Amino acid sequence: MSKRVPKLLVIDMLECLEKILDYTAGMTYESFLTDSKTQDAVIRNIQVLGEAANRVPDSFRSENPEIEWSKIIRSRHIITHEYDDIDHSIIWKIITVHIPSLKSSLEKILQTL
Q1: 72-80 contacts at long range (C-beta below 8 A, 24 or more positions apart)
Q2: SS3 34
Q3: Which of 25, 47, 92, 93 has fewest C-beta within 10 Å?
């Protein structure tokens, strides 16, 4: 496993979030459901996002409790290990509800690093 410093992991996470937002810009839930390429791209970036979050040291997570680290990591595990039962409505909620606020929080953290 590579040893990346927290700043690089936060940058990795932000890049995933930006890709997801870019891939889904202007989409509706209905159009997302019919676009398997976008679904695949989003799911892949949620996996990378969760892996980067998992590599963030516990001390850094403790210093930044506004980030729901365990939920991000758990999302990655669910998508990876229960790939045959992905609920696209949950993925859409992650995209539309959680990602914008997570992006904002990570950008604030990055400014302090």
Answers
A1: 72/102, 74/50, 75/46, 75/49, 75/50, 76/46, 76/47, 76/49, 76/50, 76/51, 77/50, 79/43, 79/46, 79/47, 79/50, 80/47
A2: coil
A3: 25
Which residue among 44, 55, 77, 81 is the active-site one?
81
Encode pLDDT of 44-86 as tens digits.
999 999 999 999 999 999 999 999 999 999 899 888 877 677 8
The answer to whether residue 98 is catalytic is: no
Cβ atoms of residues 24 and 92 within 8 Å: no
CB 43 within 8 A of CB 79: yes
Going 18 to 22 to 26 to 30, the CA torsion angle's sign is negative
Given the residues 4, 44, 55, 76, the one annotated as active site: 76
From residue 38, alpha-carbon distances to 9, 49, 110 in Å are 24, 16, 27
Distance of CA 97 to the CA centre of its chain: 12
Active site residue 76: yes
